[in-house]
Predict the structure.
Amino acid sequence: MEFFRIHRDIPFMRHALTFNVISLVTFLLAVIFLATRGLNFGVDFRGGTVIEVAYAHPVDFNRVRAALDKLNLGEFSAQAFGRSDTALIRLPLKDESSAALSDRVMNALKADDPSVTQQRVEFVGPQVGKELYENGALALLLVSFGIVGYLALRFEWRFAVAAIIANLHDVIIILGFFAMFQWEFSLAVLAAILAVLGYSVNESVVIADRIRENFRKMRKASVTHVIDNAITSTISRTIITHGCTLLMVLSILFFGGETLHYFALALTIGICFGIYSSVLVMAPLVMWMGVSREDLVKPERKVAADKILP
Amino acid sequence: MNRYPFWKYAIIAVALIVGILYTVPNFFPEVPAVQVSSAKVKVDTAVLAQVEEALKGASVPYRGTALDPTGIKVRLPDPDTQIKARDVLQAKLGENYIVALNLLSSSPHWLASLGALPMYLGLDLRGGVHFLLQVDMKAALDKKQDSYAADVRSLLRKERIQYSGTSREGGNVVMRFRDDAERTKARVAIEKNYPDLAFRDTDAGPGELRLVASLKPEALKKVQENAVAQNIQILRNRVNELGVAEPIIQQQGAERVVVQLPGVQDTARAKDILGRTASLEIRLVNEDPGALEGALAGSVPIGNDVFTERNGQKLLVRRQVSLTGDRISDAQPGFDQRTNEPAVHINLDGPGANIFKEVTRENVGKRMAIVLVEKGKAEVITAPVIREEIGGGRVQISGRMTTREANDVALLMRAGALAAPMEIVEERTVGPSLGAENIDKGFRSVTYGFIVLALFICMYYLLMGVISTVALAVNLLLLVAILSMLQATLTLPGIAAIALTLGMAIDANVLINERIREELRWGATPHAALQAGYERAWGTILDSNITTLIAGLALLIFGSGPIRGFAVVHCLGILTSMFSAVFVSRGIVAMIYGHRKKLDRISIGQVWKPSGGTPPPAATKA
């Protein structure tokens, strides 16, 4: 079985402008959604209390809400969570301690329907929420710098800059999706985003590697041709690898349950856009920044490389 | 060509054997158990014998007992017997022992003795409570500064130094004098008695000279450290009462404490017990002849209580409280300067010192009991004899104490006296059924994902695909083995990371296989293609894994809780995948193809060759 029977190099770079316009538009849309709707931060970042309760029968949300209304909780919400017999109750931050709050809620629900059981309580205070938020931003920054530094060291600064632009553009697009659909942005989603960032840089690395190799081998070819060939000859690997990773991620999405739902969703989006951006955003950027054979193939290195080759 | 030296196979074999050994314990089911431990008494073989005897006496069937540094563990056949055994043991052993329900792996003993234990499951998988508590440092400092203000005032009075007033302003104690000589006298006196204070002179016009005393930075730090240490001690005492098998109580950062109680079902009770406050009382012991005997016989005199001392002795204690714990500003373990015996040094604040002086003057030769009252339950920490009148607020308790006991008593006295308020700033409670469900879901995602992935890779790359799948399975094995070996905490995001890592790890094999196909496509011989495929792909694999590792490490540094669980698995998975995808898979290839001198074809699926088109760039040898 061979999926990719490519006769000749696909002239990706000829359409570079088109690809970049597409990604610019997606990017801008994401930014607009982020600016207008903002992220729906989960309890991890915003602070507050989440209580998951299970009933012996499908949840009657009107009754749950009615029972909670009496408690004067402020702006709470009660929603279905994965299954029909499970409800997720979100409570805003209050002066009262979380312990007292969740006990009060459980007592009220028990009084209304004794079959209710508490599955999970998560409470995050405002201070901790702020710290988690700051730490998340720091982690993102550290990853970005780490990757740029490594690629600049291993390849060349143009690759590093192009790769990080391409991949941060993925991150913004994932965030854009979360803003557009108002999906809950939790710590797990942040972890997924950082994992995707590291992962889709792989893609850029593979292509950069091939570009460098091609510069050594295809001595007479133009830069465009070299890049086209590099992308074409790695495209089959790119798609198969991402397909495989996606299989795993979809398995988490379908079987991992509600807790991992948004985590898997962020990964899915990230992987899909990761293919696109590494191939069709990073490569043109490198080209436009004017990468040349001399930048990558140092004369003394070339001699060494020739000796290694059989 | 493509042969593999023996030593490389040896490494693979060792890795596999170690991997299997450490993975296996995860497959043994957990059995109910009861764990006996004690914070107060040493749990030894004598206790073990007592436990066995008690179980036999109550005819509770058990499967075995074991004594290890954490206590005694008794394996039981089913949950009902478990609860019965707990009740029997608690009744028999009394309150000095903690009898907790636990689950133990049923893996054979020799595995456990190798350190091969099942993975440590996080709270989201086994159920339990996680609290992050913040110690109110401002309150702790406030209390300390208040007590200093009172101390300084009484010192000035005692030394007959003329002052016109004292007050507390912010974190400072401000004293006002009319006379510079008096001010200097005050300064010398205070410096001698309270070395933790720093001084500053300020003058607010003629006739009002000021002396400002504030805590030195290192003393400030010590106050904060003590506050956290004391609170941890209080929490420990309380958690012990809950009977949790493997509680975790740790300091996190400068002013926070993490409390994790795995397997706790009654979360409301846990919160209640953690959140309550204790108090310390000093009361006189009733030593009237015959009174204690009478009380033990059943007729407790009015205004008296029978308490048990820590060493088990009964005491009759008067109900009237001579002194409450908030008059104790500090308690430290140390040594008696004359006899060199272990002792506890207690500092009382100004009013406390006056009361104490009076009480001791009137009761020389009698015993006083220091009682810790927690939620209506009183315990006598110690009951020393008053040898003389004690003034000045500095008390020393010594005699019949080991260094450890002195430490404990000091901690308990501080704990009762100076519990800076704590606030729950983060809480994560997971019910046990949700935990089991999470394990199940995580396990299913990994299994189904792996099966589909394996099927696809085997179909697409045929034998090479099978080899890749084997390498991936080895990766999974090693990852689980390392997680078990390190006893890293596995969380639900951690399981997701296992799935994700497998999905990403296949990248290395895809890279290699595609490279081999490419080499074949451009006309390389099968052996050369295998060689080139592995060698050229290696650099790429290394680069791409390092970038992924950077992301993983950042998560590890900045992540907390379940996210850290994700990061740990992610980072370890990257390392194991490099080993298995390159080293192991090449070993298998060498085993299958290496010995064949003439290799016509590799089973890697159809290698499609373009007819015409651009000439291959890599066809010629460089």
User: Anything to note?
Assistant: Chain B touches chain A through 92 residues (CB under 8 Å). Confidence is low (pLDDT under 50) at residues 612-622 of chain B. Chain B is about 50% helix and 25% strand. Residues 138-219 of chain B form a domain with the Ribosomal Protein S8; Chain: A, domain 1 fold (CATH 3.30.1370).
